[in-house]
Amino acid sequence: MIRVASVDLLRGAVMIVMALDHTRDFFSRLRFAPEDLARSYPALFMTRWVTHFCAPIFFLLAGVGASLSLSAGRSRKQLSFFLLTRGLWLVFLELTLIHFGWWFAYQPPFILVVIWALGWSMVILSALVFLPHRAIAAMALLAIFGHNLLDGIRPESLGGLAPLWNVLHAPGLAVPGIMVGYPLIPWSAVMALGFALGDVFQWEAARRKRFLVQVGAAAVVLFVLLRYINGYGNPTPWAPQRSAAMTAVSFLNTLKYPPSLLFLLMTLGPALIALAFLERARGRVVDAISVFGRVPMFYYVTHLYVIHALATAFALWQGGEAAFLGLDTGSFPTWYGTGLPGVYLAWAIVVTILYFPCRWFARIKSTRRDWWLGYM
């Protein structure tokens, strides 16, 4: 696959930021969601908000990467097979290695989140790659802009089809022991949009930069306008709060599960602008960040185990037990956890530890062409 420096850099940056969110999950002493405006505060909300960029950018760049592989000489049939098999492999990872990383146990509940949705989005894209890129872009934009029209359809109204609707659009408990967190309609559309966007990276640099900035800025402006009037695109409106800062928090508090139109405009708009301006970024810091972007799946799996292992040591030091650690953060004991500064310190430690195995694996990927490396 052709490597694009700005893609690796942006992906590496969001991988680092993603670790902040998961470190907060495992280390924070707070037992409420940062989006709970009645109890949250600006620093906590922004710690969560900045991580909202991770999943949309990850899905978008996965689509871009698939498109770039065509430029590297892979046929559409070969790409389709790769996306199909890699997508199924990611679903398998979500249900096995990743699930164990979250819980350090292999038992329900199985919470199907980003890697699960990424896998099935690749399976869907494996069928779409035979269509013209403009048709794929049109379908993706239709789903992104139109899926909020489906918000009124509740799973319980569909009888036996309720689990299917959980998978497609409405997150929830699909069947006992299996929770769908990332529904496929909006997320697969973001990946498909990234695939169509891949053509842009074949353009002359000035034209590409102009296009990315214009489209990104248009998305941001549209987000601000639709959010300001509390119009279409997000189930809950913003409203004045107890302070100006919290009012700004309310404005930015868009829905991720499933990702609303405004959530995607808010995150993908700046991502496109960032892609335009990162092309000339150079230096040691850029190289270090890009290491993570070259091995995203290896990083994802490894970071869960590093965070969970460190949290286990922290819990044993604090209270002598750690079996409670997992995705059900609301059930953590009151004695466990640290404040926001401690979360940031733990995050810095996690990223520092991860750099060395990721640099090692990135070097392997750059020097070898084993078929299995494409699946990691």
Quick overview of this protein structure:
Helices cover 64% and strands 3% of the residues. With 376 residues, it is mostly helical.
Question: What key phrases describe this protein's structure?
Answer:
single chain; 376 residues; mainly alpha; 3-stranded mixed sheet; 14 helices; 64% helix
Strand percentage: under 5%
Q: Walk across the major sheet and give the strand order.
A: 1-3-2
Shape: globular
What is the subunit arrangement here? single chain
Mean of residue pLDDT?
95
What does this structure look like?
The structure is a single chain. This protein has 376 residues and is mainly α. It has one domain (5-375). 64% of the residues lie in helices and 3% in strands. The protein is built from 14 helices and 3 strands. The protein has helices spanning 5-27, 42-49, 54-71, 76-103, 114-128, 133-146, 162-168, 184-197, 205-228, 244-252, 261-277, 284-294, 296-319, 340-367, and strands at 110-112, 172-175, 178-180. Helix 1 packs antiparallel against helix 14, helix 3 (54-71) crosses helix 8 and helix 5 packs across helix 8 (184-197). The model has no long low-confidence stretch (mean pLDDT 95).
